[in-house]
Design a protein that fits this description.
Four copies of one chain form a homotetramer.
Chain A: H1 4-29, H2 36-42, H3 47-53, H4 57-82, H5 87-104, H6 109-117, H7 123-149, H8 159-178, H9 184-187, H10 193-206
The structure holds a DNA duplex (21 and 21 nucleotides).
DNA sequence: AATGAATGAGCTTTCATTCAT
DNA sequence: TATGAATGAAAGCTCATTCAT
């Protein structure tokens, strides 16, 4: 049948395949509404096999969260921290680019999963805070801070609050992707998410108000 | 033959009591993870009584959504539409005020509920689109449009996109209230939501960038 | 509202109305599949009222059986016993007539009810044996016996067995009335029951076989 | 990957075991009064296993009926149709023999089950008509017809009606077997069913009436 | 007497988990 | 290792029965 090597390789891949399947289904339907067998089937194995790799459905959930959260954040973080150009540029280009890779990956579902399940599994909260919220806020915070330091951004900026102004819509769009997104009746109402984030960043930078027009003017 | 008054009064109140209990629990734990009996108990009745008023747990969910969504949106809408002052003022005061009443009420949980359950109950999507998304976007859209028309907001504003910049953080904070909010380990990281929304509005108005400083003046 | 007299009259009628409703529904759907409330509704009263007259659903069943069985058998019995004509005549006319009144009345359902429920309520058996089987067999047995005694029927008749030949089809048609009878797809196959019983009696009397035709005679 | 043999064998046998158990209990207690778990237990499995093979209790009932009805009728039919001897002989020997095998098998319970449940599950009627009533009546009808054609039976015979005279007592005894039969208090009253059917056939053939006795003869 | 809201034991059904193969 | 038949605890739902009015 299969050579020992193939078997070995499949065996090694199993846990990840199961985690992927679990992430997909937990995000789509929620933890409680997902059957263990569905996860197994989506991963191409049988019910019993799932339990060879994870002792229970709940442990599977935790593994999914641990695994997915740890993986993905760090990667873009480096680039943002390393970035040497203007903060404006980082906000308009680098950050949306990074976000797009998150948005496009299945990991975007983690936001929905966390929001959905923290109340039932409070351990998730701590993990999420440590792995996502803190590092995420820190890196954006530093970016904004640098903008202030470099004179690009207004000196009186409330950096903490601004971080949320930057970040919350990005998360919200990830949530939509896995909730209302797939519902045809809503799709038509919402703009394309990539475009939306770029617009949002631009707007954040320049503000809604009609720009002050120096020299000759009667600005409000 | 004549129904006693006290009984009648209790009977009349039951559906609402059950809906309230269901909203609370469905939001907290999700639909699938909430047991019918828990809802009944929280409403102060027994399992069987729940089924006197709603034919199934699923119908209860739909009733919760129908009931809660329909109720709450309209109220602030009127005030926003009626508002005659400057758009800036509406954005800085009226809108945050309105949002605060939503945020404080249990109805704020609807956002979590919808996000969590649309994939499992697609009928929700249509209802949410019709009752919340469309009217909500329309009223904010008109507000921004008026700002543009009155020369308060920049003429080249992408109104559609700006609506999302305004709205998404407000929704996101409602989600937090019912997900990470109650987790002590996170609370410390996040600013007070009311303050956050007001900061967000201010930032959206003025932008991050250091105001262009023309030669002669002392701009704001 | 209602005068005391009317009330009194209704009150007196209640038990019978409930028994009638119960008979109808127990026969149609079986005891276990009939809900107490259905009986009450059909009798035009509310659930609670049923329990004012009968202490439990099971007691209601027993009352139905006691009441219905006792009532109906005796009546025709008298006439058969009193009959002074030929046994042949009794078999061809009197018996079918009697049976027709049973078949037409709701009491015909008792046969189905007994057959359906004896296994679950063995007390029924004794009652049925005493009230229906024994007197019924006795009266038909006497009829046949008289036929033999009077030289109408063959002398070597096994009366016990013949009673069953006479009676079983009559009961069977009562069963059909309440089971397959109402199913349109079967109706077409079955002959009209009254006609059938009369044919059956005639056949029983004369037999299937071509009468032996000895040379000289004009038999029958 | 390969299913072990012993397991496979058990799995193959399960549905039949469950159907057998269900037939027994549904006949004895009726569908509504039989608990799913009782069926499982009688079949030697647990509650859950039942639902591995049948999606619901109601589907189990339908399967029982489909399965049992289809199976059993045909078998004797062939022999009756193939029979080349006299119709009289067929009626006295072949038919009672066939009936006895039905009577002795658990399938005899089907008559009770059909009578008991058609009103609640009208689909049963059509199936019963097609699988039992029609073929059964046809084969007996042909038998009688042949008797007429061969000069054994009276030429003016109403064949349709006669079929019922033949058949109804046979069915009725099957019903008794599963209703009053097991009640000791009745048993004493009723003759042995096999004997009864043979007596019935003999009586049907020859009739109750004293044979006409012409003057000179050796009439049988 | 009559009502019908309320109850909770009990039944149907599901599904996480086990384990013989 | 992998399977999937089997289990039984637990969830959804029903309905006989009670009881305040």
């Amino acid at each position: 049948m299969t050579t020992p090597l193939q078997r070995q390789r499949r065996k090694d891949a199993r846990p990840q395949e199961l985690l992927d399947a679990a992430l997909t289904l937990f995000v789509e339907k929620g933890f409680a509404a997902t059957k263990a067998e569905e996860v197994a089937t989506l991963a191409g194995v049988s019910k019993g096999t799932l339990y060879l790799y994870f002792p229970s459905k709940e442990e599977l959930l935790k593994a999914v969260i641990r695994h997915t959260l740890s993986a993905d954040i760090a990667q873009g973080r480096e680039r943002l921290l390393a970035h040497q150009g203007s903060a404006t540029e980082a906000l308009l280009d680098l950050l949306p680019e990074w976000w797009e890779t998150v948005y496009d990956s299945p990991n975007s579902g983690m936001f929905k999963l966390v929001i959905t399940e923290v109340r039932n599994f409070p351990e998730i909260a701590e993990f999420y805070a440590r792995e996502v919220v803190e590092p995420g806020m820190e890196v954006i915070g530093q970016l904004l801070q640098r903008g202030v330091a470099q004179g690009e951004f207004r000196a009186d900026l409330d950096v903490m609050a601004a971080v949320h102004s930057v970040v919350l819509p990005m998360i919200m769009l990830c949530l939509h992707k896995h909730s209302l997104g797939p519902c045809s009746c809503i799709v038509s109402i919402l703009p394309e998410p990539r475009q939306l984030i770029r617009s949002h960043m631009a707007l954040l930078l320049q503000g809604l108000q009609t720009p002050a027009v120096p020299k000759t003017r009667k600005t409000r």
